[in-house]
Design goal:
This protein has about 300 residues and is an alpha+beta fold. It contains twelve helices and four strands. It has a four-stranded mixed β-sheet with strand order 3-2-1-4, sandwiched between helices. Helix 7 runs antiparallel to helix 8.
């Protein structure tokens, strides 16, 4: 892991990353104030590591298509309970969206995952490629002294392929099964159920391609988060969800929100046209995910 490696970024990007780190600390501190147990109050952030395209120097900002690379960040905390999204990090995630889309204080999307130091070192010791790459190529925006990373193990090609194959055989059939349920729900005019099943189809397809490619997928139901990770791993997935039209962005957002709102909110709506568009996009996603995974397994 590099400790001084942002010189390849424009000054405005360096300043923005400093603001992103500040927000993470601020929201974490605010979340801790409501905790009653002393051990919860003593948890702290140990590392903030930039990885992905902004660490490598290959980020994209395509004004024509609307696609922009995210800042990919790994936040390392001192205790496992401090990784809980709803307890500690949901407000930070919502704030990054707000700062990007409403206040415009940020111009770059932020995508972050949270792991405890114990879990991170366990992942390294087990040779998980996703974390091994971060430990090797990531850039530390913050690094508390006295908390070294474990030496990574190198998985054999056979071990990697066998585990990837198990993931492929689990997640692709599961995604296809949920897509069948979505089609039945559409035919029955149970639209909210159809939206939920389509959300689950997309979620499973992203888990599939991430687990096959890197043996890791974040524990998130947010399709925007999973999409960002998957598109970083496989750029062919970028074109699945066009970003150049407001209607396309709105339709994706409706499916992204369907995990909760389609089941519980009476205000949730999605039009027949939006649903039909999503169905076509899901078919395209399944086709690319299937092809990418088969290629990976044949390597």
């Amino acid at each position: 892991m590099q400790t001084d490696g942002l010189d390849h970024l424009p000054p405005r990007k360096q300043d923005e990353l400093a603001e992103v780190a500040r927000i993470l600390f601020e929201e974490f501190d605010l979340a801790q104030k409501g905790k009653l147990k002393d051990e919860h109050k003593k948890a702290h952030i140990l590392k903030i590591i930039l990885f992905g395209s902004y660490a490598r120097g290959g980020w994209v900002e395509d004004l024509k298509s609307g696609y922009r690379s995210d800042y990919d960040l790994l936040v390392v905390v001192s205790a496992h309970f401090a990784t809980e999204t709803s307890e500690y990090w949901e407000n930070a995630a919502d704030r990054f969206v707000r700062e990007l889309t409403i206040t415009r204080h940020l111009e770059t999307p932020v995508n972050f995952i949270v792991h405890s130091l114990h879990d991170l070192n366990d992942q390294l010791a087990r040779g998980r490629p996703f974390f091994v790459d971060i430990a090797r190529d990531g850039i530390a925006l913050y690094d508390a002294p006295g908390h070294p990373l474990a030496s990574p193990r190198q998985l054999s090609a056979e071990e990697t392929r066998n585990e990837a194959k198990r993931h492929f055989e689990q997640w692709l059939p599961s995604a296809r099964n949920f897509f069948k349920h979505a089609q039945i729900a559409i035919a029955d005019r149970t639209i909210n159920e159809a939206a939920f099943f389509l959300h689950q189809t997309v979620e499973r397809l992203y888990h599939c391609v991430l687990l096959v490619s890197t043996l890791y997928s974040p524990k998130s139901h947010r399709l925007s988060v999973l999409r960002s990770h998957a598109e970083r791993v496989e750029p062919r997935l970028i074109d699945v969800w066009p970003r150049d039209k407001r209607s396309a962005r709105r339709s994706f957002s409706r499916i992204d929100r369907a995990y909760v709102e389609a089941r519980y909110s009476p205000q949730y709506t999605i039009t027949d046209e939006e649903l039909a568009w999503v169905v076509q996009r899901v078919k395209a996603l399944e086709e690319i995910v299937s092809a990418v995974c088969r290629e990976k397994l044949q390597e």
